[in-house]
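Quick entry, no commentary yet.
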Amino acid sequence: MQTDRLRLAIDIGGTFTDTVLMRGDDELVATTKTLTTPENPALGALSGARRLWEKTSIRPEQISGFIHGTTLATNALIERRGAKVATITTAGFRDILEIAYERRYAQYDIDLQKPDLLVPRSRSFTVTERLGPNGEVLIPLNEGEVESLLSALEPCNAKAVAICLLHSYANPAHEQRLRDLLLAARPDLTISISSEISPEAREFDRLCTTVANAYIQPLMQSYLSDFQQAFTKAGLRCPVLMMTAGGGMCTLETAKSLPVRLVESGPAGGAILAAKVAQEIGANEVLSLDIGGTTAKLCLIDQGAPQMSRQFEIARAARFIKGSGMPVRIPVIEMIEIGAGGGSIAAVDHLGRLCVGPQSAGSVPGPVAFGQGGTEPTVTDSDLMLGYLRAETFAEGFVSLDAKATAAALAAKIGAPLDLDAIGAADGISRIVDESMASAARMHAVESGKDLGERVMIAFGGNGPLHATRVARSCGVRRIVVPPDPGVGSAVGFLFAPISFEIVRSHFTTLQQLDFQPINDRLAEMTKEAIEVVKKGAGDAAITTSLSAFMRYAGQGHEIEIALPNHRMGENDLAPLQAVFEREYSRQFSRPVPGMEIEILNWAVRGTTTVHRAFAEGRPLRSKGHNPKERCEIICDLSGKPTSAGLIWRADLQPGDYLSGPALVVEDQTTTLVSADFDMQVDQRFNLVLSQREEGAAG
């Protein structure tokens, strides 16, 4: 364990860019928040890094590790700012995107809006070839059609191509050859092939993932090159590692070829931090609440591990409705994300209803309070009006807040149409956005077959601690933990992530007919490939591998991931595999199905470095009441009336200190609201632990 190494983490969000400097394994040296610069995100990142270097007198060449996460890939897909993409599929399968799942996501909605899958039929092309499900060549690739494909690509002005040939997951030869032929004639094209991006059965999902990768690849390649060049010019000598959606890190080279894996990379860091805190405090069931300037992210964490998934949807046409977005199949920490952050815009719709989000003011022009040209009131404006934000401490004092402009905008844009004053408008915005987050959390838990009532909430992000008690109350959660430096929580989480890479391959078989020799050989080949990718960023660090299979009962449409032994499997493993599957199936669906044949569709290998998880002992806990020296007036979130609240600097608190709400605990990058019905105590690791009182409070 190196105790003197310095590592930098930068998380670029939609509103703020968070920067963290850490020494050794867990000593935070300095943190900061800067406004994101959307026209060139590297500028905001450099600004934050330079601020820390100046504050600590550390030179950039002393940094030995650099981890970066960004919302750029996600935003490019949501805002449709990627390259113009064409698709090439097997002859007869031109309309894969149009047909999709052959169903409507809202059966009786006559105004249903179909997901925008980025490629219209006019840019969908085909080539003559055919592979069987086992990879056998049924019809050879017609290379003579390449010239006509090139001619068709010219007038449509496509800059990127997504190739997805039938059953290419079993045999990539045709896709690889077609790519080589196209690049030989058009080296300026960016080409993604499904056998590398998502080599799994289900051609619609595979094509969508490949399209998404091709769509953002030119943008991300340019951005990552410019980002690396900017920091190298600034004096940084260590390589840049990128955070992935699956909770691991990869090299810049891997990120440039598989940029779709960077989607949701920032929120993944937050889930890693929450998992670490959960392990430290011994909480087995956790709900993480990460509220930033643009969105709120919620994740279920059990036994110290975030819930994982193999699929999620981008840019849903209908919020919360599955099937209304673009499906992407990559390893991802499963969470629900809604447009409910500090910059979420509030408005009164044509029916006279108060609505909040999902549109965001972002960092430019930002909330009205920022004084940068924003005219639409936001959640941040409402928090300022309610007294929850202190203008003199917001964002370390680098962003000034204009309370008068905020009050005027709230009164004019929200209050006037609803016959409310500025405070009433702010209170309405706050209640709606908090209930939106709580509703999303309840829905996410129900979809996962889990209960929120006994869970501990871990709150972070610039707005998480500010809204945690209100969201928890609505969710039925009674205990909240706010870790140190919560305002830059996702960036802190980056520094606890392993370097990892997951490979998934499709090979259909039934459990009883499993031919172990080819499966063992394939898993060995995948293991070697995963280790080689991880080694590029891990150097000589120890690498572990885990194997899994995706199994289901015959006739079912979806699979359950089951861990495999790390040895070459044989007949003696059949009964244990069946037992593990039936046990996991029973856990999720209450009972197994006797006598049903078990199928295996996909096989996975994950290579990862070992992360140090030895937690230092916390400070001794001696309970002592803390009497706030200052007080301020806020609007009570229970009664909606003005009330006096304690005002405490978090830096003045020590383990064991406790107080009762209402109170504001202020720090450089965020504020924790201790509501009138909550008590707060500082634990041994300087976490703020908020507990709802049984009897409640009137405020």
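second:
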Amino acid sequence: MSLGFFNLQKFVMASYFLSLLFSLLIAPAFVLAQVDDPLVPKWVEKDVKSARWIAKLLPLEKQSFDTIKTALDVEKPTDDADYGFGARRFCIAHGNGYSSFYVDAFTFKGKIGYYKAGIESYSKHWPQIKELIIKAWKESGGPEFVEDERGIYISNTYQAVFDEYKEAVGMHLGGMSHVQVPDNLKSDYEYLISPMRKSAIADDACDGGRRAIDALVEAKRIDLIENVARDYNPGGRVYAVLELMNLEKKGWKLSSKTQTTLRKVIALPTEISMCFADVINSGLTAKQVLRYYRNYGDLDPGSRPAFIRR
């Protein structure tokens, strides 16, 4: 045999022992990484118990903000937004073990116009506890539900309540005109007038309202912008006021009806948010937002007034 053969044999044996050593050191950690965290029984018990809360909330359309808060044993809502004219959008949620029970609702003068209620989980254990949750839901008298990848829920809309809300807004701001909306502007227009939305005023990606109002301006659809000023989205109205006043400054003649609407929107006490990148400022009025644009006119961070800065 040649010397080269013996050297090759030594190399193979050395490689074998190195591989074996690597396996002994690394394999335990690899195996541990593959084992999921075991379920915590107390957490699962909380999740199952919460599924029975649905029985305390039925019929949900008869509930109120306070009764839902009491039923879910929550002191403060997760979200609570005043839309003005007696309208409100809130979310009340109670965190449990691996899931949360929540109620998202829109009300007008205390009457529920929309609700979505159910159990939501972002845990990797959801597939393991899902059947226990569903069983408890059904046994407690819970209604048929919709299931998605994150949980189960029920929802409903009561158009009569939304009609009352729209009538109240129209009585104060003037009714919206009948308009023809082209297909390429429908999503933008509907985004701005949605009664379920409260846009934040921004010049960036914080809210889709800026992109939507820019689309209407670019299309020169002043009639659509005038309708947005009388719509049901508080932030959408402010976007429209800013753009109409900007058009007026450029020489566009606004009707006396539109001018009256603008004055009324500016005088509303409904809280509006402004958003700049990751900075969100809440609790502003339309008048404060307008004052900012009058004084600064841009969103350069260095020119932000005190109530906008960090």
